[in-house]
Structure formats: structure tokens, C-alpha cells
Design brief:
With 765 residues, the chain is α/β, with parallel strands linked by helices. 33% of the residues lie in helices and 17% in strands. The structure holds S-adenosylmethionine. S-adenosylmethionine binds at residues 226-231, 261-264, 267-268, 284-286, 289, 322-325, 351, 353-354, 373.
Amino acid sequence: MDKYTLERDGQIDFYKRFLPRVNPSLTIDDILDDNNDGVLNGNLLEFKLRIPDLNSVLFQCIKYLSAMRVKGKPVPAGIHLIDLNAGVDWYFESSTYLADIEKLYSGGASKDNSGFIGGKPVKTLNYGNNDVDAENLIMLLKQNSYTKIHIDENCIVGWATSFYKAVPTARKEDFIGDDTGAHKTIGEIRKPKKFSEFIYPYTGETNVKFNYLMDKLNDTLQKKNLGAFYTHKLYAEKALELVHKAIARVPEGNDYIILDRCAGTGNLENGLSDDELSHVIVSTVEYYEYKVLQELLGSKVRHIIPPTETNDTFNAGLVTGADALSKEYLENPVIKQYLENTKCTIILFENPPYSETTSIEHQKRKAGKTSFWKQSYIMSEMKKDKEVKGSTYNDLSNLFIWSAFKYYLRQPTDSYIVFSPIKYWKTQHLISREFLGGFAFNRRHFHTNIDACVMCALWGQSKKNHRRFSIRAYDIDKEGKLKAEGTLSIKRIYSIYSQKFYEKGSRTDDIQGGIFAEFDGTEADKNRASIRIRPLTNDNIIAYLVVKGANFDNPDSCVHLLTVGAYDANGFYVRRDNFLEKLPMFCASRYITYNREWTERARIMKSADGAEKYKKALSNGKLEKWLLKSLLFTCLEMQNHMRTFTGSDGRFYKNELCLDGTNGETLAISTLKAMNKNEKENELFEQWNRVLACAKDTSEYNSSLTYGVYQIFAELDTSYKDEKTGETVYNNVELHTALQALKGLVKDYYNAEIVPTLFEYEFLK
Ligand SMILES: C[S@@+](CC[C@H](N)C(=O)[O-])C[C@H]1O[C@@H](n2cnc3c(N)ncnc32)[C@H](O)[C@@H]1O
């Protein structure tokens, strides 16, 4: 009979036996990596209960090694195929299979491995019953050598990431520098030092082969400052339709230029005809992009800024004179001659750098203050413009958009074709110009992994206050083809909830003072940092609601519904006499959670523009039924973080916006009695009852509390991590199952019964 029936058990025994001899300071967790069975020094190990076919397991390992190369991880020299029940290790050398390792594979490494024909193993070690072989195995496992791989387009980004991690102070030149041009730093890929044991020197003379990856090869500092996210080839091609429209607007007899101040390596210009290119002026501030731009487009375009490389061109990784946000650039005589020529039409065609200092990712990196563009000339000029809202300064792309209209577009037939998320027009009102056409593209195809809407718009120079317009949407499918996804409407937003719907100030019978909460609904420490709320206490207060801003960029951090005030304020107290009319704000704040398609994200936002219409509908009773639906949804939604608890002030705070009647009716229960339930609503109540019944069966249940869904999830749906498998194990499986089922029902109910009215009254727009 086989000793092992579970691979995991055999693997743990193997490591327990050999690790103390190879390196006693290592644990199994140190070795497990990338879903394979372990990398130990310069060895990849793959365990099986039985190995009937060496070729297929060897092929699986080759796929792991291929993935390691792509990720910029050293490729171990040794491959061990280990049959746990036979106690045999077949040892191969990865260098023999380098050509296969340097191919790309898709799908799981353990699938479709038949048909591969490998060579003979270098060694076969019967470690299970032969001590000499066991010692030989230990010797092999101690070896620390690697198979050198070649750098190509598939792996260079992975190796760049590893390089900047290993040498945090390194600059891009230290990685991809070459021997051409005036600035000669020979980078790691051409003369490996750090990775000399892992990679062969790259022999390409220039970096032109990596033209489409130059943004991803930026060092950490440049990533922060340059906001470079390249445009997919298909999107660049599609945008040319707008360029052609702009060219068609050029008055008879006029010359025209197409200016791209942030061209990168020239992706946008790739599809232009030779004649069109002869009108193009390009520049980019990053030195290695500039060199590739020169190589690819230098001989075809009208001008590159600067025209040729000199000894002064390289300046700490940047190109002297090419910073589009500098005064020097604005005064560049090469461009100026066209701006001053009334018989020349100006077309700007740009995908400006994108770097938002308010984004969560950005804040995590604590990068807010140091970005060099924050000190730019354009920034200082933009700050003088009284019409520009403060929030717009946080977006680097806005500096490009603002300056395009301020300094470059001067005649009604001038045009700007620009890629950028819609908010600069929709909520920030950075420009109010004539809209002449546009497309919606998926941000995912701009070298990010975010599904969201990016608009490519053609603007004219004339002032115009559009309230809405439509654009056609295009995704890119798995086959790499453009996929039309219908027409999207883009509407402008003029007001946000806090301006129109929040209850301002306090009421006469409010008592100043009280406790306040963390965002998870638990009471906050009186001495915690960043307290901004001035708490109020009143028997008619049932909750505190925060729904911040218009956009859905960080949806969960913009909404808080709590039993007492949020420690950092930004919201208002919800009362027994107004809760129904206030809850639609909470409902609207959940839209993106239940509608995650790229066409919705960064396009649909929260607005209070329908406030008058809404108030009218409230006063004539038109919304009574729908308000009950909103209440039901609010009671069953996870982001409602209201809890029942006894505060440090001795007061008992009961969650009134939940459906637990164990300790008497809540305000929600008594209000919902008026609901004439439909099938979906009956289903929701039934599922809630299941959740509550399961909750009561848990050992953590406290019968004196009145539970909402979130408090059940946080306090009763407890779990732990299985040390062996790493998986989450739920203590109360039935409760967890019931909560999951409720989530699905809540989502369907929301989209069918709540969302249409939210749009009708422009809570969503
Ligand atoms: C979003 S990428 C667009 C590149 C290319 N046009 C494309 O669409 O793929 C923005 C480019 O602007 C460059 N850039 C960033 N800041 C700049 C500045 N201040 N002046 C000029 N170029 C800048 C970046 O290096 C990057 O190549």
C-alpha cells in the first residue's frame, strides 16, 4: 500500500527530513512559491504521489520556470521530480531546456502537459531506501546555481521590477542604459552586475524593441512623477478617426500642426500617414523614451523637441527642454512660430500623464508632496486661474488639459484630442468647450489592471456649456480585437449630496457631546487621532450618514452609515423624522459595488442635481413605495455598519435600521409594515430570517443585542486560517452560507428595484 495518499503530507515529511540538513533556518513557507511545490536554493522541486510519466511532470516544471523568467525571478539550475511513494528523485538540469523555458505558456502549469519529450534525467536518486543517494540529494539541494536567461520583451518588465526592488536607488539608466547617443550609461541588462548569475547581457544596440514597454520600465521615482500609462495600439488607431475629423476642420489654405507634448515613444502617432506625420511635432520628458521616439519617428515628423541630442540633453533621467509643464517649453520658438501664425491650425493629440495624488495607491506610497510636476510653472499659473476648482490640481493630466486651452488653442477651428477620465469635464468643470466627438475606452488597456472608463474626446476651441453628450464605447476582447459596447451618455454634475441633502447644523433640543465611532461601527477611542466630529446626542438621532464626493474612485471609503457619529465627521445625523428621505444617498453610494463594468466606473457618479425634482416627488407622496424599498435594501446591505452596543457613556445604542425584532421592533421593522411585499421582497425577508436563525445558533450570539447584517458578519461569522492549507475555515458554516446567499439576493433586488429611480432623480448621473 502507498505510504501517502495526500501529496501535502508526503511533501511535509520530505522537507522535515531534508531541510535540517540543507539549511536548518529555512521553513516550508520560505520555500513554497508561485504555486509550485518549492524552490530550495538553486532547485525547483515538484512532488507527486506517483510519477508514471516523467515527461509531463518535467514539462510542468518548465512552465513554472518560464513563469519565473517572465516575473524576473532567477531560474534554478536544478529540477527535481520527486515520486513520494517510491522515494525517488529524478534530477534534471534546466539549462538543457532553456529554449523551452524562454517560450510563453498560457493556462495552468499542471494542465495539458502531454506530448512533451524531454531527455534522460541527469541523476536518479533512490533517496527513500539508499543512504548514499539521500546524501547525494542533500548535496544537490545545497547547490545555489542558476540558469542564465535572455532578456526580451516578455520578461524585461519583470526583471526591471526585481532590479528596482533590489537596488531601490537605481534609476532607469542603471537598468536599460546603452552605448548610443550622448549620454552613455551602460545599464544592467547590457552589463549585468546585480543579476550577473541570472541573465545574459542583452545585445540589442538600442531599446527600440521595448518601445511599447518604456512606461513599465520606469524606476520608482519616475513612475510617480511621469504618470505614464501607454495607449493600446487599437485605441490609438481608433482615436485617429478624431484626428482626421480635426484635420477636416482645417480651413482651406491653412497649414496645420499636430502637437503631442507627451508622446512617450510615439504610440499615438504610429498610425498616421507619412503626409500627416509631416505635420507632427512630438516631445517627451523621459530620456529613454526620447531616444526611442527619435529612432522611430525622428526622420518622419516635422519636429522633435529637442531636435537632436546634445551633451546637455540628459538631465537626471529627463530631457532638457522637453518638460511640457515648464516655462521654457511654452516659450519654445519651434512651436511658437506656429502658434503665432494665424494661417496655421493647431491640433493637439495627447494622452497626458496620469497621476492622481488622492488615489489610495498613491497615498499608500505617501507620494503626495514630492511629485515634481506640483512645482511646475503650469501649476503655478493654473493656480492663478480663479475659475479652476481646487480639486483639479491633484491630477497631473489636468495640467496638460488646462494648458492646452490656455496656451495652444487660439482659433475656433483648432482642436484638442485628449485621452483622460471624464471627471475633468463632468465634475471638475475644468473646461467648457465645444464637444465634437469621442469614444469611451477601457482603462485596463492602458497598462493598468483597472476596469474603468477613459474618454478620448475631440474638443473645439469655442466655449460651450454642454449638459450632456454621447460617446461610443469600445473594449478589447481576448482575441485582441476592438469590441463595440454601445453608446454611453455622459452628463455633467453640478452639485453633490452634502450641498443639497445633508441636514446642516444641530437642532435646538440636541445635546452637545457624545460618543463617536470608527468606520466599522464600533465606538472610537476618545483620544484617537484625527477626530473632527462635534458629537450630538438626541433621542431622535438614529444614525450618522457620510456619503462623500461625486466619484466612485474609492467607493467604500466614501460612505459610512453608523449608529453614532463618524470620528472624522463629513456627514450628518439621521433622525427618526427624516431617515426615509435620506437613505437614497446611501443606496446610491453602493452603485459601483453592484455594477463593476468598465463602462460604469469613472463614468457614473453621485449627484444632487435632481434635488428639486426629488423634493417635489417626496411632498406629493410619489416615492412612498420606493422609499420603503430603499429602507429594506439599507437594512440588508453590508456597508451599513450600524451596530447595537452600550457606549462608554453608559447609553445603550440600538441599531434601528435592521430587521432583528428579537428585542422589540426596530424603526425599520415598524416602518416596513406598510410595505406591500412582492415576491423578491418576500424572498429577502425569508433569507434574512434564515440568517438570523443561524446567527442565534452561534456561540458568539448575544441575546441582548439587536443585530444588523454587518454586525452578524463582523461578530458572529467568525473564521480562522488553516495553518496547513492556508485556507479560511468558517466556524459557523451555515451562517456564512446564509449570509452569502443574502448578498446575491440583495444585489439583484438593488439593480431591479432601486437603481432605476436613483437615476430618475439623478442621485446617480
Ligand atoms: C500616458 S503616457 C502617453 C504616452 C503615449 N503618447 C501613449 O499614448 O502611449 C504620458 C507620457 O507623458 C510623459 N510625460 C510625463 N510628464 C511629462 C512632462 N512634464 N512633459 C512631457 N512629457 C511628460 C511620460 O513620460 C509618458 O511618456
